[in-house]
Amino acid sequence: MSSNLTLAIVVGVLIASGVTLLLERSLTRILVGIVLIGNGVNILFLMASGPAGNPPIVGDNPTSSMADSLPQAMALTAIVITLGVTAFGLALAYRSWQINGNDDVQDDVEDALIRRLAERDDTSTSFDDSAGGELDEEGSDTEGVDRP
Amino acid sequence: MTHLVSLPVILPLLAAGLCLVFGRSASAQRIISIVVLSTTVTIAAILLYRADQYGPQVVHVGGWPAQLGISLVADRLSALMLLVSSVVTLIVLLYSLGQGISEFGRETPLSVFHPTYLVLSAGVSNAFLSADLFNLFVGFEILLAASYVLITLGGTESRIRSGTTYIVVSLLSSVIFLIGIASVYAATGTTNFADLSGKMADVAPSVQLILQLLLLTAFAIKAAVFPLSSWLPDSYPTAPAPVTAVFAGLLTKVGVYAIIRIQTLIFPDSPLNDLLLWVALATMVVGILGAVAQSDIKRMLSFTLVSHIGYMIFGIALGTDLGLSGAIFYVAHHITIQTTLFLVTGLIELRGGSTALDKLGGLAKASPLLAVMFFIPAMNLAGIPPLSGFLGKLALVEAGTGQPGWLSTVVVVGAIVTSLLTLYAVARAWNRAFWQPRSVDASEVDEFGALYSGHADTQSSPSGQGRGVAVEAYAVDERLPRAMVLPTLALVAVGVGLTLAAGPLFALTSHAAVELHERTPYIQAVLGVSP
Lengths: 148, 531
What we know:
The complex is a heterodimer of chains A (148) and B (531). With 148 residues, chain A is an all-alpha fold.
């Protein structure tokens, strides 16, 4: 089976951009990323169905020249599902904005807990401060970081 | 009779629609939900009987041939999963009705809960019965969409926070699954399991490996297998108790079921079994170490949930009849026990006002019934003989030691250590919440407890005196609502019943495992021809 190179490139670009957006903190961007990946996958289904052909209506065309309609049905289903889930995600982002004033995906509770412990604790006796007080950017340092 | 197969999917969906129509009447919704879910339990029992006696029950929806249309199949594995899950769903529904007065109050719209819950049940049934990859995906999406609504029920701050993580991770796994399906279709031209089992053998081994990895990754996220499990303990505990219970019982097991299905049917000679053994070991050990470190019962249980998924993966990875049979037995056992524990935790929260171990104490004296209801499933989870948890672990250990090679022995050792650590974790929870007198010194707790359980604690923390009052109020005898206790007791009884019925159940799971490894009964039933 031969595949269409253009479609393959489109799939790659869509999914790559989607993944980039998925790595963001803001839920809206993540959702846009999911939509892009979703579209990429739908085109992947199109590729899976092979070369384009005539409408798959029995009697109109010989069977050999028909397009494979099964992946198209799957892509349609996937589109509907993506639509529904995206709508819910947007509602969630809006609710998050209502409550917090932003739609960032929050840290794991455990992370926040450990960070708080780190903020409260004095440096341990074995800690060597001469290397410089600044720790990594994730807020492990004790001063000047005011996190919610 | 085979038309029964489609009913567990159709009935809850229709009922969900009806519930929306009767959105104004809470009692009508209750009646519809109870009747439909009870019917589903009955149908699942009949299906299990028929699948056991007469082989897999198949229905081709719309009369389309298997390769083109959607087929629903109930073989022993599917029917057993369906039966256990529908029993659990029904009992949790009854529990949530009992809780309805206290929790689904003004702030959470009751009219949403019933339809969503029924849709969830339909999605789970569809996933268990589905005979092709794409319908499995649809089943997953139905149950996930319902679970998104349930986990953010009421839209409070903590639920939105944890729900966001859950939804993003689930979306990611769905997308990976979808990529997997498209690739499988591109490679073989079908998504039907039975058809795939024949055609996958013709695909080049390297392509097979990629397809298998894609599908396994998608399912492993859903099943919360170790490197992909960190979303679970963060997102489950904030939901209402019955929701957490049904999620813990069912959703991860749907992922495990999917792994069993593709590993046995599509990729029977899997080159990834060693990898799965490692993953199983890591899931067990890392999960239970997380549980040991927790000071909140709900979070502790979420970590044991992750940890015990490892046992099932272990059984699957062994690839022997005994291992698979043990894994299936363990799934049935674990669905029941984990759900029971979360329901009991809901009662603990009601009685003690919290699930943080630092705030609890002396519950055994205050409420002996609650103590018994926690103790039995907790010991069952840890695998104390003669309970079903012990039997399941015994089967897995036996299957593991019977296997040549050092790796399975290592995993067996890991399994036993995990079992002991589980005992430690639940015994610690038991000691601190039920045995020890309650410690009033809770200054440490307030600050961190607020982070865990969200809004409820932040309100009380500024005033130190408010706490003192709460401590006193707790000792006063307040009865637990009977409508919540009875369903919990029923589920505890089901757990004990699994122990009593372990002999027949084990015979059933062994037959199921043999049937899965033979593959021909399933393929023959679906395609109508022998491969």
